[in-house]
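User: I'm putting together notes for a lab meeting next week and I want to include a structural view of one of the chains we've been expressing. I don't have a solved structure, so I'd like a prediction I can at least talk through. The sequence is below, exactly as it appears in our construct file.
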Amino acid sequence: MNRHIIRPRTVAEATTALAEVKARDGHALIVGGGTIAIPQLTRQEVQPTDIVDLGDLDVPRIWRDESAVHLGPAATYQSLIDTPYAERRTPLLHLMAKGITGGIQIRSQGTIAGSLVCARPYSDAPAVLVAHAAHVTVASAHGTRTMPAERFLTAPERPDLRPTELVTEIILPHRPEAVAHGYYKLKFAESSWPVVTCACTVLADGTAELTLGGVRGVPWKIRVSSGVSNSPQELRDVIDDHVSALTEDDFWQDIRADSSYRRRVAATVAARALRQAAARLPSSGTEQS
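Assistant: Thanks for the context. Below is the predicted structure for the 289-residue chain, given as structure tokens.
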């Protein structure tokens, strides 16, 4: 198959190209870092007529203002790690990026926006972005729209993204009420995809926000009170109650683990993420994230 390679320099060029591909009944594959898209092409899992390569896009990778940190479509895990203010302003994302599966190659090439767009339940980034209360801006030739990451992720591998749109920005708002963070992922081998993940944020009033990935088809946020978050057994009971309230069809399963296994380990993974966050509380004597 002869494919057109399009290398836009601006967002306007990219969205115009996407609109033109759609108008002639083509199918565009947007490539950021290529760590997901290129293997898909190699295995012939996708058959695009056009490849839109964002490598030359004139958008900053990472920038900040008083209210938020902003990630462009080419922001990689390594570029986040290398950003001096990232650990303080985006602590959960920074924790996740340091432990991303695949080592330096994936950290340097894989983009955070690319992982979000793929919307895979077993990926690290989607649940962490939901935990950060991130918003996502998408652009088309007709304009832009912005929505919470939680709403962008509509179903497994189904983001709220039309064929003529691309993600141009992920907005991570400053949350002064968040005082400590923890991130834990369960996987069966060092190089394997996670099975279940949990991103934990402890708020100033003691409330804990637990965002689980890999349990349901989309990230699942559960809030627990300060009394519960201080008691491991009560936390397990609360998580188990939430799990029991759902039907079997509400849970994700794949070749790594079936739904019943994910249900069983959800409370344990959440408890370990909360334990990490508790160790980072200002009162514990450690530096606040």
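A couple of points you could mention at the meeting. The longest strand covers residues 178-186. Confidence is low (pLDDT under 50) at residues 284-289.

User: Perfect, that's what I needed.
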